[in-house]
């Protein structure tokens, strides 16, 4: 994609002055993170890293990403309800991946006891990169869908004001007006509020399962504040607190500190390092309860990379979304090449292709949170090591998306403003609520653009690689 800020990026002194104004506006707007030195305290905070300019995104791709979000909501929900599909899809993975195996074990236990939860809430974010088709037209390719702890919906509502400010300082008022307003946290809170209302107990609270060290607290507070404005109370507790103070009554209603919980919203529990024995027990307790979990364990499993890969197999979408050929076509149009590494001929061939052309592939384990995927020489070494072992089934292989780089200036606390070649990743937030078999809500609620320097293959904002951005529609 061409870059319309080209000449602006060359004037170093102007960039430095603009950067100072942008940072001050970001701080004033609340584009904040706690510092890595003090992740448990808000006494000293700094700005979340962001781009000085919004990055150009073809409007058609933005529209396509928004249009397919309701289909992804339906798809994730359909997968979560299809125990046979989850079992079959994850069977080889859970033999070798203990984290997925533990999640799956909780899923099995809940199914065996019978699911007490009747209202289901999905808050997800589907992420994409842009690539050129063979004919030169731009294409939207899904990177992954996040079904647990999808973050930055709060901060993403505050960055448009910063980019409008930068453009207004440059007297580019027409351009400033083109920056889209965005308020994902409001939409996410509306989903939580709907689930809370359907749970049907005016006294019950929302439990936000939080990490002890949380730099991204202001992102979470944006949702909490929206809920409080609707007179819905939120308590923040760690898994450890749930394990010490949580209990179920005979109807499997969940109580924490003696207060009934209507909705459990996880901003923790998506990485192995976030669990010890006590935390796993707390997760099981939460899953057994009739509180609305966001996500419930099956929906978390529906977001694994292994499920993503199986969904791309010929005929699978048609089975999961019967009678919806248009939704199937919209979904499939966003899929990149995804390959199973299960033992057998198909997996052998995928490995041979990746070893023959490593720059065209990414090797992905069943992990979230950035920094886990393998590229290039590292991928080759891993594939050589895994090739003849059943362990390979705990990974999938994915076509590497190659967006066209463009120049932008990345701003981070403590670093000089620097212009670098970048690529962007667009996320769309989706919200759905289902009561029994009935869909009560199915929406898209906003977007997130993250941009990173091309030298980083992997990683998001929380991982310290990407920075917050806004799409400038062209
Ligand atoms: P995680 O669950 O850790 O966020 P992702 O699948 O989103 O895992 O990958 C992390 C990052 O790696 C992405 O944000 C993106 O920058 C990069 N990435 C992942 N898959 C691809 C791909 N197929 N092509 C190019 N880059 C990718
Ligand atoms: Mg990701």
UniProtKB/TrEMBL annotation:
Pathway: Sulfur metabolism; glutathione biosynthesis; glutathione from L-cysteine and L-glutamate: step 2/2. The keyword Lipid metabolism does not apply. It catalyses: gamma-L-glutamyl-L-cysteine + glycine + ATP = glutathione + ADP + phosphate + H(+). It comes from Molossus molossus (Pallas' mastiff bat). Keywords: Acetylation, ATP-binding, Glutathione biosynthesis, Ligase, Magnesium, Metal-binding, Nucleotide-binding, Phosphoprotein. It holds the Pfam family GSH_synth_ATP. Binds 1 Mg(2+) ion per subunit. SUPFAM superfamilies: Glutathione synthetase ATP-binding domain-like (SSF56059), PreATP-grasp domain (SSF52440). It is an enzyme of class 6 (ligase). Mg(2+) binds at residues 144, 146, 368. GO terms for cellular component: cytosol. Substrate binds at residues 125, 148-151, 214-216, 220, 267-270, 450, 461-462. InterPro entries: Glutathione_synthase, Glutathione_synthase_a-hlx, Glutathione_synthase_C_euk, Glutathione_synthase_N_euk, GSH-S_sub-bd_sf, GSH_synth_subst-bd, PreATP-grasp_dom_sf. ATP binds at residues 144, 305, 364-373, 375, 398-401, 425, 452, 458. Belongs to the eukaryotic GSH synthase family. This is Glutathione synthetase. Homodimer. PANTHER family: GLUTATHIONE SYNTHETASE. GO terms for molecular function: ATP binding; glutathione binding; glutathione synthase activity; magnesium ion binding.
